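Following up on my earlier message about heme C. Here are the inputs again, as you asked, copied directly from the submission form:
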Amino acid sequence: MFFIKKNAWVWIAIFLSVCSQSTLAFHKDVYEPRVPKAIIEHEQQVKSPYPVTPERIEAGRKIYVGAGLCVTCHSRDGTGVSLPGHSARDFTDAKWQKLRTDGELMWVLKNGSPGTGMPIRVGTDINEEDGWNVIQYIRTFEGK
Ligand code: HEC
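Thanks, got it. Here's what our run produced:
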């Protein structure tokens, strides 16, 4: 019971994701872009205004395990927990890491991944700078 209460919002997100899958995109292929086709060329070009530094990676790690709540679904080692429909992305997948630009990841942080359990994070629980820092941290999982 305690477990369910503590993670109630996760279950709500899963429930909403399962319900919305009939009306929104269902992506079987994890490599298929999550950004809508009409805007993807623009979003792929969006770059972080911040340089990659050890301090920012560490700030990103704190967001990942803290305020961003990422760790709940993406797990400490970045491989992601298994969820019904769409499992959380495996950040250690080098092919996926190479396919996605930082701009695409920021779009997902600002919009969620519609039709899945991936919630909007930037503008809700974390700000844009936190978002760029957490993206730097996600990049460190590649090939681990
Ligand atoms: C409630 C669970 C949940 C939480 C919390 C969550 N995610 Fe996700 N995330 C998912 C799921 C499920 C997917 C897979 C979505 C899909 O297949 O499109 C995903 C996918 C992603 C992707 C990959 C999108 C792509 O283009 O392939 C990124 C990046 C991401 N999450 C980052 C984060 C970050 C950073 C946080 C914390 C700030 C976070 N997520 C919090 C469930 C979650």
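One observation from looking it over: Residues 45 and 103 are 6 Å apart (CA to CA). Hope that helps, and feel free to reply on this thread.
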